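Format notes (please read before filing issues)

Several people have asked whether sequences and structure tokens are stored in separate files. They are not. Every record keeps both together, in the order shown below: the sequence lines, then the token lines. Line labels are part of the format and must not be stripped during preprocessing.
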Amino acid sequence: MEAKRMDTRWILLATLWPICSFAGLAALLRSEQPLTKRAVASAILNSGFFGVVVGAVMIHRFGSEALLLTFGIAVLSGLGGNTAVDFALELLRTWAGKNAGPPSKNG
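Then the structure lines:
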């Protein structure tokens, strides 16, 4: 019985990659940003990895009891994965922009 559960977990993780990747691509298309090869590859890779990692963590935490919940949360995280990475990069740019430049005369 445990072997069947293990197979189900691997099948779920294998199906999460393309579905989360397409979810990230859909988010990119909705954002109305220019579609460059780099942007498309970034959306697919970020969302695919993010969805699979969230799925693996959920499977490790909840096991086979909550596979549909795991699937749903992983797809939603894949959909928002690209947005989360863009948000983090924008925070870094803002922080670096405020801290960059010549030192102030007062301090």
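For reference, the curators noted about this record: DSSP finds three helices and no strands in the chain. The helical segments are 2-30, 37-62, 67-99.
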